[in-house]
Write a structure and sequence with these properties.
The relative contact order is 0.13. By secondary structure, the protein is α+β, with helices and mostly antiparallel strands.
């Protein structure tokens, strides 16, 4: 009997339990249909108020630290050598400290051989210079001889012209005159002899002798005149040409002597120049070998931190094929061995998406966080890269510009900063003053419509808004909210969202309208929205005023549980982008920046997937 009673009591307990579970299930269904927990149970940290505040517009970027000034030290040798000494990596050195020594035994042997070649080249040069001096002396002797022959020929010509010619002419004149006087005398004698012969005082033989002498005298006159004429007509020109020819020959010989002297001297001088050039080459080789031997001990040209080039290459993403510098390691000609960065001035070299690079200017303030030392240091933008770099094989379509930020080393004097430390930077592009804004995570997008979740009783309404400028923390609300309204800072569950529809008035209040298909579209730029006078009407009339006069009042389907309008396929939703990619995407959809570099009042947001929160995107006026 006792056992039966215990079984009856257990059955009652089970039945009571089942009743209680059924009641709890019913309450759960009622709770779910009424929206679950009320806003009174919502964590107050999940809500924020739309407030008038100041905030900074920043662009985020990441990169690494580099020294503002650094020196690359390469192997000075023109041949492969080996390391005999190397200073430990990471050592902070002063100027003049030996860093690396290379093996120069082969260079020393070559230096000794080159020294012998220099001595031989000097002896050859001395011989060539002596030959030049001898040639100059020979040239002078030959020139004097040739000049003497010209002078003698000219003197002979003058002697003939001024003496011999006159002398011969005088002789010819006297010969003619003597012949004529003898002819006259004999003519008179023959006359007298004929008279005497008539008187028989002279024999006929004597008369004939006188007549023969007269005939001979007549012939002598003719001969002497012919002699004079032949001298003037033939001999005189012949002798003149002969004398002139001797002078010309002497002058030609002088010219040949001068030219031959110059040729001989040039040959000797060319030999001197050739041997002098050979000596210079030998001396240069000798000096070069001395310099290489001297430079084989690489000295720190300035103070800095010793960093092996192989470490820098591996840090930049190389394949790690370079063996670290060590004693006995082979060193190629002109190989970079050590990089000596000056850590007293450090620069953050960060990469920023091309859509944001146009807004970064020299002199803009920035803050750089170095995770390795746990410090955030202020800085100033020093330069923006001229050309964009690709994202490499991982993302070939990505384009990024390198921005160099000069750090305030007064803040980092004891931080122990080193090159290649990873860093994250925030660059202040602009400052927003006195703007109605909410935290950036409170703004979501549904197609072209930006909206926020506003508490309505125990649940939330989707309220269309228009964002203006935004930072990574706050978004300016140009239209759709008033100061003090509370907004949700997270994505609510489907049960927390009221099943309501957007009216045309709600859309118009935020600067949207409905197109011919009844889909929301932008009705006015955010800049115009921000410029709307306070209290201006926002409703159907505003929508018609923005280019939709015939637009009929329609309702927009409320979102489904995942934040999409009802009836839209879930496959159309994409993952939410994060970080710089989202910033770049939003910036790509922004209006073009004016040529003067100023920012527009409106920066249209990207069209991300429906129902997802707006990204923190730096834009500015």
């Amino acid at each position: 009997m006792a056992h039966g009673r215990r079984r009856g009591i257990s059955g009652v307990k089970i039945l009571v339990g089942l009743v209680i579970l059924g009641a709890l299930g019913t309450l759960g269904v009622i709770w779910a249909s009424s929206g679950g927990a009320s806003t009174t149970n919502t964590n107050s940290l999940e809500l924020a108020s739309a407030e008038i505040r100041d905030f900074e517009i920043t662009a985020s970027a990441s990169g690494e630290l580099v020294a503002r000034n650094s020196v690359e030290l390469k192997s000075p040798l023109e041949r492969t050598s080996t390391v005999t000494y190397v200073i430990p990596e990471g050592t902070t050195v002063e100027r003049g400290v030996p860093l690396i020594r290379l093996n120069v035994e082969d260079l020393m042997q070559q230096l000794r051989e080159e020294e012998l070649q220099v001595i031989s080249a000097k002896n050859e040069l001395d011989q060539a210079e002596s030959a030049v001096r001898i040639q100059i002396s020979e040239n002078a002797s030959r020139l004097m001889d040739a000049q003497l022959q010209v002078a003698l020929a000219e003197l002979a010509l003058r002697r003939w012209q001024e003496g011999e010619v006159a002398q011969q002419r005088e002789r010819n004149r006297i010969s003619v005159e003597n012949a004529e006087r003898n002819l006259k005398r004999l003519s008179e004698k023959v006359e007298r002899s004929r008279e005497l012969f008539q008187k028989e005082f002279l024999s006929k033989d004597e008369l004939e002798q006188d007549e023969i002498a007269l005939a001979q005298a007549q012939a002598d006159v003719v001969i002497t005149k012919l002699e004079r004429e032949i001298h003037e007509t033939f001999r005189l020109p012949e002798e003149e040409k002969t004398k002139m020819s001797e002078v010309e020959k002497a002058k030609a010989a002088l010219e040949r002597t001068v030219e031959q002297n110059e040729i001989n001297l040039r040959d000797k001088q060319a030999a001197v120049e050739t041997r002098a050039q050979r000596l210079r080459v030998r001396e240069e080789n000798f000096a070069k070998l001395e310099r290489q031997i001297r430079d084989a001990e690489i000295i720190a040209p300035r103070a800095g931190l010793v960093v092996y080039a192989s470490s820098m290459e591996n840090n930049r993403g190389g394949w790690g094929g370079d063996v670290p510098i060590s004693v006995g390691r082979d060193v190629r000609p002109n190989e970079t061995l050590i990089i000596l960065p000056d850590v007293s001035e450090m620069v953050a070299s960060v990469r920023i998406h091309e859509s944001l690079a146009g807004r970064v200017r020299e002199g803009q303030a920035a803050s750089v966080h170095i995770e390795a030392v746990g410090r955030t240091i202020d800085g100033v933008v020093e330069s923006v890269g001229v050309l964009a770099a690709t994202g490499g094989w991982r993302d070939p379509n990505r384009r990024e510009y390198t921005v160099r930020i000069l750090l305030d080393m007064n803040q980092a004097a004891d931080a122990g900063l080193k090159p290649s430390m990873r860093c994250d930077a925030k660059i202040t592009i602009n400052n927003v003053r006195r703007a109605l804004s909410v935290p950036i995570q409170a703004v979501f997008v549904d197609g072209p419509v930006q909206f926020v979740y506003v508490p309505n009783g125990p649940r939330f309404d989707r309220i269309p808004v228009r964002m203006g400028r935004r930072s990574d923390a706050y978004a300016e609300i140009a239209m759709g909210l008033t100061e003090g309204q509370r907004v949700l800072l997270r994505t609510p569950s489907p049960a927390e969202v009221l099943d309501t529809q957007w009216t045309e008035a709600q859309l118009a209040a935020a600067g949207y309208a409905l197109d011919e298909d009844g889909k929301p579209v932008l009705a006015m730029p955010a800049g115009m929205a921000m410029g709307r006078p306070p209290g201006a009407a926002a409703g159907p009339d505003a929508a018609r005023a923005n280019g939709n006069p015939n637009q009929r009042r329609q309702m927009v389907a409320p979102p489904s549980g995942d934040g999409r309008p009802q009836g839209e396929p879930s496959g159309s939703r994409t993952d939410r982008p994060t970080g710089q990619e989202a910033q770049a995407a939003v910036a790509d959809a922004s209006p073009a920046k004016p040529k003067d570099g100023s920012e527009t009042a409106e920066t249209a947001s990207v069209k991300p997937s429906e129902g997802k929160a707006a990204e923190a995107t730096p834009t500015e006026n």
